[in-house]
Amino acid sequence: MKNWGFKIPDSRTLDLDKEDLKLYNKIVEKVPSARRCIMCGMCSATCSAANHTNFNFRLVHHKFRMGMFESLASELDKCMLCGKCRMLCPRGVNTRAVIYNMRIILDNMYYKNI
Amino acid sequence: MENKKTVLVIGAGPAGISAAKSLANDNISVTVLEKEDTFGGNINNWAKLFPNFKDAGEVKSSLIQNFVNNQNIKIVYNKKVTELKKHNQKWIANTSDGEVFESDAAILSTGFKVFDAQYKEELGYGIYPNVITSVEFEKMYKNGKILTVQGSVPKKIAFLNCVGSRDEKVGNHYCSRICCIAAVKQAIEFKELYPQSEAFIFYMDIRMAGQFYEELYRKSQEKHGVVYIRGRISETSSTIDKKVQIKAEDTLAATPLRMTVDMLVLMIGVEASKSTTILSKQNNIDGPYGFAKSKDIHTADNYSNENGLFLAGSCKRPLTLTETIADGKSAAISVVEYLKQTK
User: Fold this and answer.
1) Which among B2, B80, B212, B297 could bridge B51 via Cys, Cβ 3.0 to 4.6 Å?
2) Residues near B221 by beta carbon (within 8 Å), at least 6 away in sequence
3) Does domain B117-270 have CATH number 3.90.1300.10?
4) Which helix (H) or strand (E) holds B277?
């Protein structure tokens, strides 16, 4: 059959029945404070990396929690681990540790397969 | 001997009980008219109360101390007031069975009713058996178990806030004030019963204004791992095995979302009870959404624009139980002030 060079895209819908929400529990085990996040965005508002890139920790954390792992690994590379966000977090989330542990999990998922 | 002043209290819920007790304490003769065959009103529908998980029955029994056997209080059950009118400085209440009560002042403590979730047809209440309301959750919890229609423990449960509140489509623009906190409370109760199950709360804003409420929210995340999803459920459908399929948007990720849960709990809002609407309309003190309107929300909240008719509790607006009990007492003080002036 002729290859027309296009295909039907995957559904954009976030399917919580399919996605592996349990992966987030690995983060929570290492960083229990992550659970307290209320998605206020104070972290991403103060982020030094966000001055130069479109890095958004709040969104990355949220996407990870909901099992939307696509492109997260490269997103996380934008963080410099400066820890400014951690100083501001009103719920005392160890944001740096969240990023660090997300990186480990995502590295195992993506980069090791390359 | 001086004639004792008399006051009619309409409704024996927490506001009415607390007002009647305070009045009786001031040696005023109180007649409480209750449409049901028992006192307590909406408190009878609750198992435990936020923020401290106190047993609602316990709260009720401490509330009714000096109420039931008080010589200054006469409680009349199964009396639905159909008409309340002022006549020659007296308040006259007509009941549905034709009896007439008379007094020097009257307190409206006719309270609220919960929103009928069937109006939000898209959420499937009354259509899919595993879609229940927060009041039904309380009933189940009272019996110690939360089970699906099939009789199994839900592996996944979702709570949806703002059902019948903050919704122009059902004519209620206001916030019902208690549902957010109740959702957090019920999610914690569920996780304590079934730690292996998952609980999700769909919210618009989490409104935790009150002492210890925010802490409860924090505890639900930290200790019980309740997952909060910002977004309103647009519609539900049923799977072949009677699970509930949910469609919503995860607004924090700007992505449409779909999931299947074993049970969906609708956090139904607070509306003015029928008696509240009817009796306040008769006396031209009806406010928005059928609630009764106070004279001044800041300085004369228990007074109405009708001299001698007072307001107590959630006939004015959605209130927590704590506020309702305090408001009953406050109404009693206003009545005493009034009766002194009219001596």
Assistant:
1) B212
2) A35, A36, A37, A38, B228
3) no
4) helix B274-282
Domains B6-111+273-341 and B117-270 alike in fold: yes
Question: With helix as H, strand as E and coil as C, how does B93-137 read?
Answer: EEECCCCEEEECEEEECCCEEECCHHHCHHHCCCCCCCEEEHHHH
> Any CB–CB contact under 8 A between A28 and chain B?
yes
Distance between CA atoms of residues B52 and B40, nearest Å: 20
Domain boundaries, chain B: 6-111+273-341, 117-270
Please tell me the CATH code under which domain B6-111+273-341 is placed: 3.50.50.60
Chain A residues inside the 8 Å CB shell of B230: 39
Name which of A17, A32, A68 is nearest B253 (Cβ-Cβ): A68
pLDDT, tens digit, 9 for 90 and up, residues B7-21: 999 999 999 999 999
Q: Measured between alpha carbons, how far is B268 from B264 in angstroms, rounded to an integer?
A: 12
Considering chain A, what is the average pLDDT of its residues? 89
Q: How many CB atoms lie within 10 A of CB B232?
A: 17
Residue in B with minimal Cα distance to A37 = B221
- Tens of pLDDT, residue by residue over B90-127, are 999 999 999 999 999 999 999 999 999 999 999 999 99
pLDDT in tens, A63-84: 999 988 888 988 999 999 999 9
Nearest of B150, B167, B188 to residue B50 by alpha carbon: B188
Name the pTM for this structure: 0.93
Here the tokens at position B326 are 């305090």
Q: Does A26 touch chain B (CB under 8 A)?
A: no
Contact yes or no for B107/B330 (Cβ under 8 A): no
Which residues from A are below 8 Å from B228, CB to CB? Answer: 38
Residue B205 forms contact with A (CB below 8 Å): no
R_g of chain A, CA atoms, integer Å: 16
Taking only the tens place, the pLDDT of each residue in B59-81 is: 999 999 999 999 999 999 999 99
Q: Report chain B residues whose CB lies below 8 A from the CB of A59.
A: 252-253
Q: Nearest by CB to A14, from B198, B227, B255: name it.
A: B255
Chain A residues in contact with B218 by the CB 8 A cut-off are 36, 91
pLDDT score at B343: 67
Helix (H) or strand (E) segment spanning residue B74: strand B73-76
Radius of gyration in angstroms for the set of CA atoms belonging to chain B, rounded to a whole number:
22
B183 in Cβ contact with B172 (< 8 Å) = no
